[in-house]
Known about the structure:
Elements: H1 13-34, H2 37-47, H3 53-79, H4 83-88, H5 97-123, H6 130-140, E1 153-160, E2 169-176, H7 179-213, H8 215-228, H9 237-262, H10 265-285, H11 289-302
Antiparallel strand pairs: 1-2
Helix pairs in contact: 1-5, 2-3, 2-9, 3-9, 3-10, 3-11, 5-7, 6-7, 7-8, 7-9, 8-9, 8-10, 9-10
Amino acid sequence: MLKVRHISYYQWVAIVLAGQAMMAWVPHVFWRVWSKRVPVLLRNAREAAVPDKETRQKAISCLVAALEEVSEASKRFRRTRGVFRQCLRGTPPTTHITFLFIFVRLLFIANNVGQIYIMRRFIGTNDTLFGLHVFQELLTGSQWEVSGLFPRVTYCDVKVRKLGQLKPASYTLQCVLPVNYFIEKVYVFLWFWFFIVAGLTVLNTIQWIFNVCVPFRRVYFIRQYLKALKQLSHTEETECARFVNNNLGCDGVFLLHAVSRISSDLIVLDVTGMLWSNYQRAKITGTEGDIVRFIESINRVSGGTV
């Protein structure tokens, strides 16, 4: 008595893999569409790392202008009502880059978990850890019959009409499925890839949230640069916290973290020093006009780069 089992994924493997590849790009496309300002700022950060002094100074000035513009936009946004109406009109707010980044990271995590779920459903198993179990079978030399997910040998019913016979004769033959050797390795690799990437993304997202969204971590990050520049005295510790939390905010600190990762700490050192000097100047004059005029002058010099 033969055990009947229907496996229908063979003809759809290439199509499903192509669909999974496009699915993996969705969070990246979402980030590129909704964070139009960030790529420009990061490009300026890369330009700031060049040896040419003039190009470097211009890129740093553009970075400072962009960060202060983000800070001013964030203040205006906090005073604006009807945020959800703005989003519904299709005009995403230019602030809250941090929350957009975290949301995209959550999309990446959901994407990887969804990819594992799609593979599990596609190959017809209820075992979420199927990749690990198949890999263990490969290491121990167990036969494929243990899991039966990727059968190497099956029985095929073949009908043959012989000369002079009206009704074809039915034969059951043993068939080899060599393609399953390849499919098995592909799906085991993809399972480990998505599982590891999902885990690393979760840990990295937690790290970003801790460094950017926790107030004392934001202040510590900026304070270490100001102390390195010797621009922060003991009497200005409270003012530094006010500068970080009320002026830079999550978005400013997030962007400085991003600049430090793609460029260098020296660039962040110069940018932080200029931001602090501008903040001190605006505080002394009792107005934010200096910051606004500084942004306008930088935009004129850079030809509207930022």
